[in-house]
Amino acid sequence: AYNIHVNGVLHCRVRYSQLLGLHEQLRKEYGANVVPAFPPKKIFTLTPAEVEQRREQLEKYMQAVRQDPTLGGSETFNSFLRRAQQVVAGAGGSAPCARPGRSCRCALQETQQIPTEEVLLEVLLSNGQKVKVTVLTSDQTEDVLEAVASKLDLPDDLVGYFSLFLVRETADGAFSFVRKLQEFELPYVSVTSLRSPEFRIVLRKSYWDSSYDDDVMEHRVGLNLLYAQTVSDIERGWILVNKEQHRQLKSLQEKVSKKEFVRLAQTLKYYGYLKFDPCVTDFPEKGCHVVVSAGNNELNFQVRLPNEQLKEGSFKVTRMRCWRVTSSVPMSNGPSGSSPGKAEVKLELAFEYLMSKDRLQWVTITSPQAIMLSICLQSMVDELMVKKSGGSIRKMFRRRVNGALRRSDSQQAVKSPPLLVSRARGRAGDMRAAPKLGSVSLRGIGHAGPASDAGTNDFHGNYAFEGIGDEDL
Fold first, then answer.
1. More confident residue, 449 or 163
2. Of 86, 167, 394, 461, which one is least surrounded by beta carbons within 10 A?
3. Using one digit for the tens of pLDDT, what is the confidence trace for 155-186?
């Protein structure tokens, strides 16, 4: 069995024969010239080296399919991932991989099918309010989002402004964002497979430009959701408020002037930002502790230097030439009976930034939330490109075609895809699902990045960077 990871989390386990079946179905529907080449069958038993070679070939195949706008967005491919997610590892778990010097695990062959049945799923709003919806275990993200919107009486033309996020809730009620749930995921399976009550699903707005607030506030339910999220972000300290602003906000709350409350909040620092857990960066020097916030088409850094001095600065997404997310699993030096599968995965987001007219510099963030940060960058660029082309997310609405939910083309342009994580060295049988890039595509990089052994396919080129002019500097 091969493990497929999406957004850094195990999504499903599949066999070679299942992937071959997917390949044959794609060839039948789209033609041999469109579908990438598939790793051939072998007559004899594979050697350990050939097993690793096949894994790499299958990984490249899945990445190529995911990146293709036709194949990656097809119902055939997405339904394959949804069905595969319903098959989980059996009670046998995993067994050590018999490969000297490698810290890895290979999945046992026992699997267990999750039955399709009605279940009660709890979705949180930003203020902690619980929305309980009845869904099927096989319902995808679109279905669950529709069920939540229906329960809240949110109109169809506003649903596209919101998304479901997987978060980790701490004891004090704070949220740590894990990832945005994708269209091929089964939210019930995604959250229950983690086997921990601290993982929750939260509904939040999914756009960055605060001018879209006007659309959302046109409807009572949209206004209530935006108001609740704004109040929550202020209480969490994500939005900075001085004493006078706090007094004004308190007065508006007492008057139940929700729209005026949001209007005032829009003028405050960090309005509409997502705040991430404290982590480490190499800017302006290695080993600096930093709190990163994403919003207003930038990453904001609040850095504590080694001498305890505090500094703040921002990196505009339009000045990021490219970025990538990498992961690594440290080698296990413990006793032979220890569990290498428990080794902590190290995640890094690195982006190449135009510091001045003629100087590019790499900046690296080491954080368990690196993939979520990457998704934020992706969605910011998507939103910028939609605006540049004259589009509007106002057109995002839901359609039901032959009983299946679909979104308009404009929604396809701005959704946040899962981003590629390069292979975790020392772990066999793992594949990473690559991005469906939309307006951002992979491009060859002319010189080495921060890690010289990384291939160019690890990079995400930024088309928003191409329009930068002297005035941006």
1. 163
2. 394
3. 988 998 999 999 988 877 778 888 889 888 89
Provide the mean pLDDT of the chain.
77
The answer to whether the beta carbons of residues 317 and 377 sit under 8 Å apart is yes
In contact, 156 and 408? CB cutoff 8 Å: no
Percent of the chain at pLDDT exceeding 70: 73
Distance CA 176, CA 170 (A): 8
- Torsional class of 256: left (φ above 0), alpha (ψ -120 to 50), beta (otherwise): left
Q: What count of other Cβ atoms lies within 10 Å of the Cβ of residue 368? A: 17
DSSP state of 197: T
Identity of the amino acid at 349: L
Strands 430-432 and 2-6: parallel
Cα angle for residues 316, 320, 322 (degrees, 5° grid): 150
Cα separation, 181 vs 440, in Å, equals 19
The token pair that represents 87 in the structure block? 């098959």
Q: What confidence tens digit (pLDDT) does each residue in 375-421 have?
A: 899 889 888 888 888 776 654 444 434 444 343 333 333 333 333 32
**Could you tell me the pTM of the whole model?**
0.73
Start-to-end Cα distance in the chain: 50
Alpha carbon distance 200, 196 (integer Å): 9
Collapsed DSSP state (helix, strand, coil) of residue 63: helix
3.20.20.80, 3.30.1520.10, 3.40.50.1370, 3.30.565.10: CATH of 2-90: 3.30.1520.10
- How large is the average pLDDT for residues 443-462? 44
Instruction: For domain 114-206, give its CATH number from 3.10.20.90, 1.20.1250.20, 1.10.260.40, 2.60.40.1930.
Output: 3.10.20.90
pLDDT at residue 147 tops 60 = yes
CATH annotation of 274-330+345-391? 2.30.29.30
Round to whole Å and give the CA distance between 74 and 83.
Answer: 14
DSSP helix, strand, coil percent of the chain (3-state; round to 5): 35, 25, 40
With a pLDDT cut of 90, the percent of the chain lying above it is: 40
Is residue 353 a contact partner of residue 313, using CB atoms and an 8 Å limit?
no
CA-nearest of 347, 351, 345 to 367 is 347
Q: How far apart are CA 292 and CA 253, in angstroms?
A: 29
Looking at the domain 209-271, which fold is it?
Acyl-CoA Binding Protein (1.20.80)
Domain ranges of the chain: 2-90, 114-206, 209-271, 274-330+345-391
Let me know how long the chain is.
473
- CA 180 remoteness from chain centre: 5
Mean pLDDT of 195-223: 93
